[in-house]
# Entry
Amino acid sequence: MRVLALMCHKNIKFEIKFIEMHCKPEWFVKISPLSRVPILMIGDDIVLFESDAIMEYIDEISPPQIMPSDPIQKALDRGKFEYASELMKNMSIFVFCYDEEKFFKQRELLKKNIEQVDKWLENKKYMNGDQISLVDFCFIPIFVNLNVFKPIIQQCELTKDFPKFNKYGDTLLSLPCSKAGKVPDYELLVVEGVEKVNSYLYRSNPCFFKSLLEINTRQPTK
Amino acid sequence: MDKRFKHTLVAHKICPFSMKVLTVMRHKNVKFEIKFIETHNKPEWFIRISPLGNVPVLIIGEEVVLSESAIIMEYIDEITPPKLMPDDPLQKALDRAKFEYSNEIIRNLYSFIFSTEQEKFVRQKECLIKHFKWIEEQLKDKKFINGNELSLVDLSFVPLFVALNMLKSTLPCDMLKDFKRLKIYGDMITSLPCSKTGRVPDYEFLMIDGIKTQNTVLYRSNPCYFNNDSKPQGCCFFRN
# Structure
């Protein structure tokens, strides 16, 4: 999602192919060394993998660059790319885990992660000030996800103490590339996934998920 | 020296990611201090400054903390021209992807070495063989990954071959025996001066000690090699 959002922001012309991770096509396994998404194919032969490498490449070929040029700032931002990935992994576990004990452990871990992001933000609009930079794109998927489960997130007070984090989320979600960077049926797919694994989050909020499924299946795909 | 530019590397003695950074810093002759920590018993000051709690970490001056080996390596490369990283955006991206690939294969190897379960041990070995094939394909007939000249991505593979050499000298088994090009490449990058100075002198000892004390599959199936007993002819585990 971070790559897609960036490509939309930079108005890059591209084709997109979606695949199923639990049933990867042979052509994909052959070209993707670590069998992960996303990959960017350039022409017929070149395959770029790793979202951060792809993002920096896209940024460099479509000036003006939104990655800082100072070596220290660049390194600090790259550190935040990694932190955002870690936060996203923790969120995934939180949403999809079956075990109650694990769920609450993840919630505490997430709170620590969110607190760190809140601290980095200070009172800035974006991570590095008034202007968007590459690092902000890494946080878009986090807020897109949190938004799917907004009432539950509010209920378990995950982000309650972090107003800067919440404001940052609103800013990122209001960007056009944030909307363009996800598939229209994203929410439905996530909710279906949660239902399928019967996660703790799902089991403890059945009415919420029922209504969410109904809303999303009723809406025509945009 | 201006304290704002003092570099302090926080590392773990047998951590391969710490070794990557140390290797680059030695190659580039960077002046720095080094602090070793135990990862199973992290000091409080470290937990406070390292957002993800991982080594290596590079402290610049008093306050700036960089983490992740690939990030630190690129930073060091940029502040010590001439750069080993290419300028072309596409080549740079391909190399950055290989940094991550080298992390993955190193994680596999360490998982293999320190595995305590038979099934996991065998699985990791199969993963490794697949990865070796891929790197061989990338190398083709080149001296280094990107041609005739050393680049940053070569230094990120150093810990892989250092660990494989450690295994080779302890057990009479050569995991690279079917990968001629990879062997030549490995021998070459481990013979670089920075490869030798990029690790602690007691690296092999600490690795072997870890293999024994964690009662790994490797140890359980080859105790004689780790206990300096009289060595039998064949390697009792790697027989295919």
Remarks:
- The interface with chain B takes residues 33-34, 42, 46, 48-50, 52-54, 56-57, 60-61, 71-72, 74-76, 78-79, 82-83, 86, 116 of chain A (CB under 8 Å).
- Residues 27 and 194 of chain A are 29 Å apart (CA to CA).
- The first helix of chain A runs from residue 2 to 9.
- DSSP finds twelve helices and two strands in chain A.
